[in-house]
Specification:
Strand content of chain B: over 45%
Helix content of chain A: under 10%
Number of helices of chain A: 0
Oligomer: heterodimer
Structural class of chain A: mainly beta
Radius of gyration of chain B: 13 Å
Shape of chain A: globular
Structural class of chain B: mainly beta
Distance between the termini of chain B: 40 Å
Number of helices of chain B: 0
Largest sheet of chain A: 7 strands, mixed
Strand content of chain A: over 45%
Order of helices and strands of chain A: EEEEEEEEEEE
Radius of gyration of chain A: 13 Å
Largest interface: A-B, 16 and 20 residues
Number of strands of chain A: 11
Shape of chain B: globular
Number of strands of chain B: 11
């Protein structure tokens, strides 16, 4: 299993600013993901955070808007840049740990953009 | 394209049994997952099926038919705390999870 913490747990930000979300895992993991979940909807994968190389982004998400760092096997950050109200969502960090490819989720960061 | 279908919302009575269905069409198949998500919280893992048949874990069971692209989650002896969204997800040939929109389960006393 894996225990994941995220900071901040919630934030209210102004349009045009940027917010960096941190994800810390209690063990070394290879696969780490960033998801977005808008109210009442399911999870949308933003990107896979790769240690030592650039993140792999899903269709509709770009590095300029959502830069990701993965400096080691236990930590990652996601930045939401130049925010607009449409970015208001819950952002979740997730890792794959153990068998069979079980994904564990962090508690999420609830972002509101005004 | 890839698609996961599950009902948007279901209502059941405390103490009863409810079955939440999930059908899928994906590029390859490396297993099907069920997650529970309480409002305002992160999803938590419930079950994983990769072979056909029924997996039982306490009050929860999950069934898979790969030939039919079909799974269900069965919840017995429902409790009020079971009120949550239940997410079906399939791991495709690239080991990427494809998520359904979730089924909101409402338990009434």
């Amino acid at each position: 299993s894996a225990v994941i913490s995220q900071k901040p747990s919630r934030d209210i930000c102004q349009r045009g600013t940027s917010l960096t979300i941190q994800c810390q895992v209690d063990s070394q993991v290879t696969m780490m993901f960033w998801y977005r979940q808008q109210p009442g909807q399911s999870l949308t994968l933003i990107a896979t955070a790769n240690q030592g190389s650039e993140a792999t982004y899903e269709s509709g998400f770009v590095i300029d808007k959502f830069p990701i760092s993965r400096p080691n096997l236990t930590f990652s950050t996601l930045t939401v840049s130049n925010m607009s109200p449409e970015d208001s969502s819950i952002y979740l960090c997730s890792v794959v740990a153990g068998e069979p490819y079980e994904q564990y989720f962090g508690p999420g960061t609830r972002l509101t953009v005004t | 394209g890839q698609n996961i279908d599950q009902p948007t919302e279901m209502t059941a009575t405390e103490g009863a049994i409810v079955q939440i269905n999930c059908t899928y069409q994906t590029s390859g198949f490396n297993g099907l997952f069920w997650y529970q998500q309480h409002a305002g919280e992160a999803p938590t893992f419930l079950s994983y099926n990769v072979l056909d048949g029924l997996e039982e874990k306490g009050r929860f069971s999950s069934f898979l038919s790969r030939s039919k692209g079909y799974s269900y989650l069965l919840l017995k002896e429902l409790q009020m705390k079971d009120s949550a969204s239940y997410l079906c997800a399939v791991m495709d040939s690239n080991y990427q999870l494809i998520w359904g929109a979730g089924t909101k389960l409402i338990i009434k006393p």
